[in-house]
Amino acid sequence: MLFNSYEFLFLFLPVTLSVYFLLNSKRLAIAANAWLFSASLVFYCWWNPAYLPLILASILLNYTVGNMVTPDGPGSGRKRVSRKAIFIFGIGVNILLLGVFKYTDFAVTNLNALLHTTIPLPRIVLPLGISFFTITQIAFLVDAYEGLVTERKFLNYALFVTFFPHLLAGPILHHKEMMPQFDRPRNKVVNYRNLSLGCFLFFIGLFKKVIIADEFVGNVKTAFDMAQSLTFLEAWLASLSYTFQLYCDFSGYTDMAIGIGLMFNIRLPENFNSPYKSASIIEFWKRWHITLSNFVTTYIYTPILRSFGRITFVNSLVAILLAMLISGVWHGAGWTFIIWGGLHGLALVINHIWKKAKLRMPFPLAWGVTFLFVTTSFVFFRAKSIDRALVVLKGMAGLNGVALSAKMEGLGFLARFGVRFGGVTEDLVSGRNMAVVALLFLLILFCRNSTRLATGFRPGFRSALGIAVLAVTSMLSLQKITEFIYFNF
């Protein structure tokens, strides 16, 4: 089920919300949580009920292993099987789960290319949200092993994993922040401010998705998937279009998830903080997909650094590079994602060396370099193959010349500078598309983001009118329903 669908907006969400607070009003808190857990499972398996046994098995396994590896848990006194062995088993099963469903086809493809074999691809269908609910539970196991888990109620754990707003594309939740919220008495009654603020954030996110992000779908697909070559403007407009599409699509999903959570009086963590305003790649990763950055730092970078024995500056740089490569692999089964992760790893290494040397760069130049790098690296993130990425990059480098739409021949004086007219994708290099990209560029750079808008939110007539305008505008565009980009990861 999609947030941007009529069945979610007019059936699933209002029914789930109403029954949840009705049960709580009758002081049936456990029943209310059980209802929310059941509704989340329905939401998850809406596309394919075959996904249900997988997520249930994952929850049961990780909850059991987590309790067994806790220092004062059932496994602490075992003599035949150590806590460490059980912990390694639990982590191994989670990694195997991801490996089988996400990377089998990639592994077979590369094996065939390396050994010149013809092993048929199994073409395993990737279960939705598997990357998110798997790493969420890996964090739980690590914390359980280190004795950091205090909340152990099974229903709260199951709800923490499956809570439907975040289930398919984040933000990545932490058990310590989430599980206690399901038992707080003040969260069991309707909070009208949270309800109105939740609606405000939800419809901001819906507007970002259906009005802005979906605007770029056709042009991005044409440039990245079908074009045999791209001119300078075509390539840059395609690259910028995807940069804005990805941000509005993913941050739009996050806004909707946080908004829905607030309707249930559950606070989900911030995941974006105007990342395209960053003046360094270090700052970018503090603003972009914040919950993933926190996970990578705590559960990947730190263990790698510790494994070196000595914590030195050089070792920290190696750990950063390895952590970002792993992050790239996590995003998808393909060499393009590995390259993307490696590029960001190298950029972070250079940025840390630059900081250690106490070098400075004027803010406009620092911002420009950062944005240029992020936009260029996203070419690999979007392209389906290295060859397709090179088509876009060659165009961005100007290797195929500069061309404008034939409709812009009024700018004929540009011909003396090598600009030609015609022979381009008219929709991509249209005046309208250029204007949309330029306008969005200015909005993202100079307007307050949804988090800042939420901070200043006050329920009232003006806010109600704003919500209504966002809602109506967005819902009128729901006839062109598209999935969220991060559903693929």
What is the element layout, followed by pairings?
Layout: H1 6-25, H2 29-44, H3 51-69, H4 83-115, H5 130-145, H6 154-162, H7 175-178, H8 192-212, H9 217-226, H10 232-263, H11 281-287, H12 290-307, H13 313-331, H14 335-356, H15 363-382, H16 386-396, E1 402-404, E2 419-421, H17 431-446, H18 450-455, H19 461-475
Parallel strand pairs: 1-2
Helix pairs in contact: 1-2, 2-6, 3-4, 3-5, 3-6, 4-5, 8-10, 8-19, 9-10, 10-15, 10-16, 10-17, 12-13, 13-14, 14-15, 15-16
Comma- or semicolon-separated keywords:
single chain, 489 residues, mainly alpha, 2 domains, 19 helices
Would you kindly provide a brief summary of this structure?
The protein has 489 residues and is an all-alpha fold.
Give a verbal description of the structure.
The protein has 489 residues and is an all-alpha fold. It has two domains: 6-189, no CATH class; 197-488, no CATH class. 64% of the residues lie in helices and 1% in strands. It is built from 19 helices and two strands. The protein has a two-stranded parallel sheet with strand order 1-2. Helix 1 runs antiparallel to helix 2 (29-44), helix 10 (232-263) crosses helix 16 and helix 15 (363-382) packs antiparallel against helix 16. The longest helix has 33 residues, at 83-115. The protein is globular and about 75 Å long. 39% of the residues are buried. The model has no long low-confidence stretch (mean pLDDT 91).
